[in-house]
Amino acid sequence: MAVSSATPADEPVAPTRADPLARDWSEGIGGPPGRHHRPHTWWTPLRVILALATVVAALSLVQKAPCVQTQWSDAGVRYSRMCYSDVPYLYTGRGLAERVWPYTDSAGEAARYPAMEYPVVISYVAWATALALEPVAPGPSEQVRAQTSVDGLFGLPGMAREVNAYFLLTAIVLLAAALGTTYLLAGVHRRRPWDALPFALSPVLLVTGLVNWDLLAVVAVAGALWAWARGRPVLTGVLIGLGTATKLYPLFLLGGVLVICLRRRDWPTLARVVAGAAASWLVLNLPALLSSADRWKVFWTFNSDRGPDLGSLWLAASLLGHPVSAQTLNLASGVLFVLGCLAVLVLGLRAPRTPRLAQLAFLVVAAFLLVNKVYSPQYVLWLLPLAVLARPRWRDLLIWQAGELVYFAAVWLYLDQTTASATTGAPDPLYLVAIAVRVLAEIYLVAVVVRDVLEPEHDPVAEERDAEPVVSTSSLAGARSASTT
Fold it and tell me: Which end of the chain has fewer CB within 10 Å, C or N?
């Protein structure tokens, strides 16, 4: 007997009722909940999701175990076992092992260590974590460190254990951010807490969550989505500003807010979001700016000066014999991104219903990543919380993540020169194919989300749509009628 997909108004939407793939998977454990089922008094959906997220967090540490066991010093292991992380290398390479303030105004410290090439919040957290480790750090004394070259720090007695300790302490911070993200995503739609489960059980979260500090920005994005769903525009803006001070991409959520406010002609809400974002970003950047404006600017100059880099279509073109200068690349990628943003704007204004913020933000961030000059393996985390809310369907999310996993494996094999033609200098065909697979998988999910926006009856989050009436596409001939829908 088929199980009805109807759900009482006060009961969470069960994925085994709403999602065809989840329903099929559940058959082995009894199938979807029946008409007379009763929810567990303690194991609420949120607690189940957080418990599963904790298991994935633990497995993400296991995935990094080969590098931890070899003290991050075996180049073959870090690539062939795909356990690489930026964290331990930046600990000794950016002065954190000597507790140097990332925005130091000391000429000696600035000459010894390059500035952190990340926005300020990552620098703050990395430095604060090093300070927290200092009382129990097993490495040599400050005097020994100061007398040793930067390249030699990693080999000092006791430093290997200290680097591992720093990585594990950072991992605790990042995995706490992953749990916080899970909690916030589960609360975006009051009747759809299970939409956070694909994030909690995401294979790309498991393998990329500890590559860099990106999860700090991810939790800020999840918080902004949660605050927007609760009708708190100032808090939404503050969290967008926090995310932008951590990684640049959370700034793009403002594009989604703009589209929604344009449709509703809600200028006060737009102003509150923008003001909150600007204020929090400025407050967070002030300590770095006041300490050393030159070192603060390194993030911006570093990204402006870099050429085609890992994972991008621009690198693929370069490997195939069509190199592009950094200046030309900045212009080309910038123009293409602006065109992508304009396409999202038109889509949002012409949609029969006001799109959800997660849908619009996903499309803008995806447009950025598709044309950006670099796609580091952990950048998939930028899309993950947006994707699971924009298209909460297991099949589509797994198809997209399968493409991401292909690229994740290929990039480490490429860096390990396992597949590269190191002797001939010929382009690595496997790596080029992996870049194409990743891009096509991303485009697939973009196409599905665009379809949901244009044809809202396909949107799984039907009960969370705006209460405005559906308007036929033919009636949206003018921009004025579109903006007042």
Answer: N
Residue in this structure with the two tokens 């997660």, named with its chain if needed: 358
- 308 torsion bin: left (phi>0), alpha (psi -120 to 50), beta (else): beta
Question: What whole-number distance in Å separates Cα of residue 85 and Cα of residue 72?
Answer: 9
Reduce the DSSP state of residue 118 to 3 states and report it. Answer: coil
* Amino acid letter, residue 116: M
Report the alpha-carbon distance of residue 457 to residue 292 in Å, rounded.
Answer: 53
Q: What share of the chain is helix, strand, coil (3-state, %, to 5)?
A: 70, 0, 30
Expressed in angstroms, the distance from the first to the final Cα of the chain is 42
Q: CA 469, 470, 474: angle at the middle one, nearest 5?
A: 130
Cβ-contact 190, 151 below 8 angstroms: no
The set of residues, in sequence order, having a beta carbon less than 8 Å from that of 235 and lying 6+ positions away, is 223, 227, 276
Per-residue model confidence as pLDDT tens digits over 429-465: 899 999 999 999 999 999 999 999 999 999 988 755 5
CA dihedral 355, 361, 366, 367 (to 10 degrees): 80
Dist. CA 392–CA 369, nearest whole Å: 21
Identify whether the C-beta of residue 249 lies closer than 8 Å to the C-beta of residue 365: yes
User: pLDDT tens across 280-316, in order?
Assistant: 999 999 999 999 999 999 999 888 888 889 999 999 9
Residues of the chain above pLDDT 70, percent: 86
Compute the distance between CA of residue 387 and CA of residue 363 in angstroms, rounded to an integer: 9
- Tokens 């400025």 -> residue: 282
Long-range pairs for 410-413 at CB < 8 Å and ≥24 separation? 410/434, 410/435, 411/310, 411/311, 411/377, 412/79, 412/80, 412/82, 412/84, 412/377, 413/79, 413/80
Give 175-224 as a DSSP string.
HHHHHHHHHHHHTTSTT-GGGGHHHHT-HHHHHHTTTSSTHHHHHHHHHH
The phi, psi pair for 147, rounded to 5°, reads -90, -5
Alpha helices, DSSP H, located in 38-196? 45-63, 65-69, 75-80, 87-93, 107-112, 120-133, 142-146, 159-186
Token pair for 427? 């382009």
Rounded-to-integer distance, Cα 332 and Cα 468, Å: 39
